[in-house]
Amino acid sequence: MTNQNPEQIARDNIDKQLLACGWVIQDKKQFNLAAGLGIAIREYQTDVGPADYVLFVDKKPVGIIEAKREEEGVRLTTVEDQSSQYANAKLRLLNNDPLPFVYESTGEITRFTDYRDLKPRSRNVFTFHRPETFVHWLSQSKTLRTRLHDIPHLPEEGLRDCQITAINNLEKSFKDQRPKALIQMATGSGKTFTAITAVYRLLKYAKAKRILFLVDTKNLGEQAEGEFRAYTAQEDNRLFTELYGVTRLNSSFIPNDSQVYISTIQRMYSILKETELDESAEEENPNESRFIPKEPVPVGYNEKVPIEFFDFVVIDECHRSIYNLWKQVLDYFDVFQIGLTATPDNRTFGYFNQNLVSDYGYEKAVIDGVLVPYNVFTIETEITKNGASILKEFSPLIDRRSRQTRKKFWEALDEDEVYSGKQLDKDIVNPSTIRTIIKATKDNLPAMFPDRMDSNGVFEVPKLLIFAKTDSHAEDIIEIVREEFGEENKFCKKITYKSDEDPKSVLQQFRNDYYPRIAVTVDMIATGTDIRPLEVLLFMRDVKSRSYYEQMKGRGTRTCTVEELKAKGTPTAKFSKDHFVIIDAIGVEQSQKTDSRPLEKAPGISLKDVLQSIAIGNTSEEMLSTLASRLLRLDKQLNDKDKAQFAEKANGMTIPQVVKQLLQAHDPDVIESTKCEVQSTMKGMAPIEIEAAITKANQELIEQAVAVFHSPELRDFVVDIRKQYDQLMDMVNIDAVTNIGWVKDHAANSAAVIEDFKTWIVTHKDEITALQVFYAQDYRHRTFTYKMIKELCDTLKKEKPLLAPLAVWRAYEQLEKTNGSAKNELIALVSLIRKVAGIDTTLTAYDKTVDKNFQDWIFTKNAGKHNAFTEAQMQWLRMMKDYVANSFSIDKDDFDLSPFNAEGGLSKMWALFGDQTDSIIEELNEVLAA
């Protein structure tokens, strides 16, 4: 229609939405309440005047729509009193109760209030609710928002303090009707478990109908599904899946009989757009794509998945992938939103209305002992820092290598080639640089983990993850790692989406088995993957996103008991994992980072990102024209064989034919022609139906144009064929390490740790028996036991987890020379206290102190005599010395224990030393602890 006033335009838009949502629209003069389940009657008379729309469900009035012109959208809350008056009015011919469901709408903006709530509050909704929904809601004695107040106190058993805080605060946020809540919990602190516990309580006590668990990669979805299936409900000891249905969506079909649905945001977007999505489009998170359209492609209403389909949505890794195009998925549903992230940025805080219900960052988690701290070891080489040059004069012929096939060939150098460190492993490959870094890593690992020697004296490499720049770079690294470590294939493997071997299988091996010791990845296990035995991260690629870098570091933060370390691939481990090491070979720690990716469209969008965006459902004019332009350029570069391959994978269409369809999809002339054809065919039918048919015909044009690109095989072919450009192989310049060692900042951290430890010891020296022994002048004459040291160690770790003895020992190692290494944390603690108390000037492993004191004692005993003790006595005394070195003292009862009991116990001691037995025991206790 033409020449409509703003009110008529608004009502036309409202009519369209009501029809789409299953309502039958009728005029007040000709209404038929039996025409459908839900009837919307225009201008129905009330005792305070005509209401714009009165909603009837199953012949009973249930709601009101107050219609306003579009310009009133900014003032919709000011008309709530007016719509409320209509809702509380008496309808003509009826003796009705107040109507609970009330909307204010411009046709563009719609607000909704359920007046049955404890504290009725209006909220924005994408469109109207369906009649069936009102039937369901009215069948319940309480609304969802009222039922949230029925959730009982949280049982705290089996939960960490941070999880208890997060769930309690989240449930309070629900009761306050806060629409969005943000849970920040450090990677490894159990945020998914926290979310599942909250979901379980919402289903059980608030009687939530359906909950969506939203992720942004297929890998995270599979992990979430696994955690839901493994979760045991504490209150009745049954698995979650025995109580509630859990469905991970992998097609456009959504069953309606589950309670928890796991989906990537890409798939949910494609479902709302009613387009198919291949699973390959879910492998990478959309945040990594450089393409961000200026105008997001809008989603429309989908009656199969109405706005009220879910009650809650949990958004994993919510610091990424929920903006721009993807934000529409969240805007569509009428839900409470719960964000999960370890690394929120300012956008994330803003999106969740600054409603931070859990603030549990990495530092807090380390202090609580939930996660482990890390140290940074730098390896800087001449070429990574300064680049290099290949002179034509000395290198007339050079190696080149195909990026895709990795086939090498010789080529003449036209001019001197000068390159920077940033070009390494992309345009230029210098095997010497990779080899130098790997060799430096191998040479320094034994000093980082001095306790990892097997029974044959062979160093056992800790589980180590290398972050590479590309798959090709990963291949180079793997080859050189195997050479430098002198190991077989299974020692080092690649874990990326493009691995020939099943990446999930390799990841499972890396997590649970002895081999591989070293894994190389590009992106697959950068985030959201739990690898507890992992102790070293080697960065051979830079990262510009602060949050992404924190996620990558999170792979190493998990705690791991010594039993688990031994069982999952590191049998020589003697202690629980209490730290991990970052080896920085690229300057990732110093490189400038940004909080998030820019919101504006980035220049130079890669062809891969263009194809990925279209496969996900972004079919904007800008995107299709961009792809058409790229394909035209590609067509000029391909030979006949490659063109034939393209056609074979594109259902017989050539590149020009595909380009023509892409350009026609949004061509104004083609669109106008389609419109005229539809109008001619549907002449005399309702304008709304004609308009819907035109929209559908235009959408079919677009779908037809992009149909071939739903095939991952074609997309991969197009991307790979573009990689036929070559890499230059620098076999001339030999790299060398220019700077290696622990990062200086960590020297300051180490000094702070030592100072904190000294302060704690001095503060508690009069309270704890073990410390009194050390600080008392006559400590040599007091009983000093293993139990005392164990209690002291437990108290220290409970009060100050960051001051665990081995952590303090490492801090000393970074700052000054130490004598020996701590065999366990109790020996370390005794050695540290001796240093702090001033007994030892150099931090010395207690067993070394005992050895030296024993030698001095024997020397004193032998003075003036040839041998004070027989060989049998010396063997027994050495056993006593070793026992004291590990248990700190010895008494008669200890001779019933190993190793003495196997040699005859206390009776053998009497047989060897007779009346000297008591004095020998007392003397050794005194002199060995000196």
Task: List strands and helices in order, with pairings.
Elements: H1 6-20, E1 24-27, E2 38-46, E3 49-57, E4 60-67, H2 80-88, E5 101-105, E6 110-114, E7 123-125, H3 131-138, H4 144-147, H5 161-175, E8 180-185, H6 191-204, E9 211-215, H7 218-230, E10 232-233, E11 238-239, H8 240-243, E12 246-248, E13 260-264, H9 265-273, E14 312-315, H10 327-332, E15 336-341, H11 346-351, E16 356-360, H12 362-367, E17 374-381, H13 382-386, E18 388-390, E19 397-402, E20 408-412, E21 417-419, E22 428-429, H14 431-448, E23 464-467, H15 471-485, E24 492-494, H16 503-512, E25 518-521, E26 536-539, H17 546-553, H18 562-567, E27 580-584, H19 607-616, H20 621-637, H21 640-649, H22 655-664, H23 668-681, H24 687-706, H25 712-721, E28 726-729, E29 737-742, H26 744-763, H27 769-775, H28 786-799, H29 805-815, H30 825-836, H31 846-862, H32 871-887, H33 905-913, H34 917-928
Parallel strand pairs: 1-2, 4-5, 8-15, 8-16, 9-13, 9-14, 12-13, 14-15, 17-27, 22-28, 23-25, 23-26, 24-25, 26-27
Antiparallel strand pairs: 2-3, 3-4, 5-6, 6-7, 10-11, 17-29, 18-21, 19-20, 19-28
Helix pairs in contact: 5-6, 14-15, 19-20, 19-25, 20-22, 22-24, 23-24, 26-29, 29-30, 31-32
Given helix and strand content, the structural type is alpha/beta
Oligomer: single chain
Quick one: how many beta strands?
A: 29
Number of helices: 34
Round the Cα radius of gyration to an integer and report it. 36 Å
Care to give the gist of this entry?
The protein has about 950 residues and is an alpha/beta fold. It is built from 34 helices and 29 strands. The chain is globular.
